Give the backbone structure.
Amino acid sequence: MRELSTVDRKILAKLQGDFPICERPYAEAAEQIGISEEELLQRVQELLADKVLTRFGPMFQIEEMGGAFVLAALAAPEERYDEVTALVNELPAVAHNYRREHVLNMWFVLATETKAGIAEAIARIERDTGLAVYAFPKEREFFVEMKLEARL
Amino acid sequence: MIDDIDRALIVATQGGLPLVPRPYHTIAEQLGLSADEVMRRLKVMLETGIVRRIGAVPNHYAIGWTANGMTVWDVADELVDELGARIGALDFVTHCYRRPRALPAWPYNLFAMVHGASRDECSAKAAEIRSLLGEACRGSDILYSTRILKKTGLRIGS
C-alpha cells in the first residue's frame, strides 16, 4: 500500500463529494483543493493506477432505469475458491464481489438492466459453479452513503 | 426512465470519466453530441437519481479502512423498519438495508455496513447498534471482508 500525501487526502475528500458538471470540471475542483488542474489530473491518474481509487466517474443507479441490483452469496469450497471466483467475476452483471469470513464466503452484487436479468445471472452462476446462490434483494433502503475519509 | 442517448452516455462513462481538461466534451465527441447536451443530460440524471453522484470510488483498504464488517441482525418483523431507519441514521453506518431471511441458513433481515481501522473498532460500532436494537434483536453476526474479488461497478452492454 502506498503512502498518501496531504494533497492526496484532500483530493479523496473532495472527489467523494459532488464533481462539477461544467466545461472544465477538474479546474473547478482543483481550485477548491488549492492545486492546478494539471496536477489534479495527474494525481487522479496515479491514484487510479495505484488502485487507491477503483473508479472515477458517474455512479449509476440501475434500479432508476428499470433494472435491478441484488446482493447475493454462495458457499464456495475452499479448494475451489479461485475457480469459483473466476466463474462469478466473468459475468458483466457482477458489479462487486467480496470474500467474507462466513460459511457463505463469497458475497457479490448483481446489477442487471432488467429485473429478469437477475434470475438469469443467478441461474448461470448456479449452473457454472454447481453451487446454490442465495439472493438477498433489498426490501427497504434505510441509508446509503459511502464516503470514507482517508485514515492513513 | 432513459432513452437511447442516455443509455449510450451510461455505456460511455460507466468505466470512468476521461482524465482530460474537458471530459464532457470528449464524451460528446465520442457520441456525436454537443457538450451542452451531454452536460444537460447528466444534470437531469443527477436530479432524477439515475446518477447517484459523480466522483471517486476509493478502495477502502488502501485508504486505511482495513476492517470492513457487514453486520447482520435478526430483528422482529414488526420493529425492523423503525429500527432500520434509526440505525441507518447512525453516522458510522455507510449502508443499511432490510433484506429477506433465507431460513434456516440465514436468519438475518437487517444489514448494516461498518468500517474501521481495526476489527475492535468495528466491534465497538456493532455494540452500539446492538444497544440501539435492544430486546428486538434475536441474533446477529459480523461478516468481515478479507478480499475485494471484483469492484468494477455497474457494466451494461453497449
About this structure: The two ends of chain B are 17 Å apart (CA to CA).
